[in-house]
Design goal:
Blueprint: H1 15-30, E1 36-38, H2 65-80, H3 85-91, H4 96-103, H5 111-121, H6 125-128, E2 150-152, E3 157-160, E4 171-176, E5 192-199, E6 201-205, E7 210-214, E8 218-222, E9 228-231, E10 237-243
Parallel strand pairs: 1-5
Antiparallel strand pairs: 1-10, 2-3, 3-4, 4-10, 5-10, 6-7, 6-9
Amino acid sequence: MYRRIGRAGSSSEGRCRQGGGAVVSRAAASYSSSAALHVRMGGSSATKMSGDISATGTSVKLDSPAVVGLGRAIRALRAERGLSLSQLALSASVDKGYLSRVERGLKVPSVAIVLRISTALQVSAAQLFGAAEDHDLIYLTRAGDRGGLTATDETYQMELLTRGSDSSGLEVFLMFPPADFPDEPEMAHRGEELLFVVDGRIEIRFPDRILVLEKGDAVQFPGPLRHQLRRLEERSCVLISVSGP
């Protein structure tokens, strides 16, 4: 859950955590609130959560309060709006079985899926993690106080940094990309995306090209453009920003 003011805890997240704060501050100063950030998937974390996906592809219950809470919040919001699982899956352009696994805490959704579900439910990504809506002008989250806003499995990790009041606001994620392109539909979502490499090297695949980005590189593109992301170095860390309807 979000807290208004949190206490910074000790960090074992390596270079991403060490350099991330300065990068986020500079990004916030350089880019308008119409950009949304995705940062941080995969790799080690101070809030390490264990999960397992078997070689056969069968999902096993992920031992993560945030993942379980994410699924429960999605189910509760869906029920509150009187939507069936099929209706939400159709509205979010997500496979019904995939959505069912997310709701049961068996699957960590990609950033793109989180954004598509939040758009379909007309809420912010933070509300999908169970955070209460907040309309304060200034909102602070400390580096060591975001456990409830982190979702991870054995392939990647994402951590929510922002708390917009609705699904049209700025959404910012820290992300350690997986080692391989995900074995699921290519990512596509609302708004405009800006991806900034905080550390390491990553590869991003579009329908007509593949780009290799190194530390300090950035790429901007329309969110609806299909894309996939993977790391080329073990501790690669990216900042991804998405905003707009």
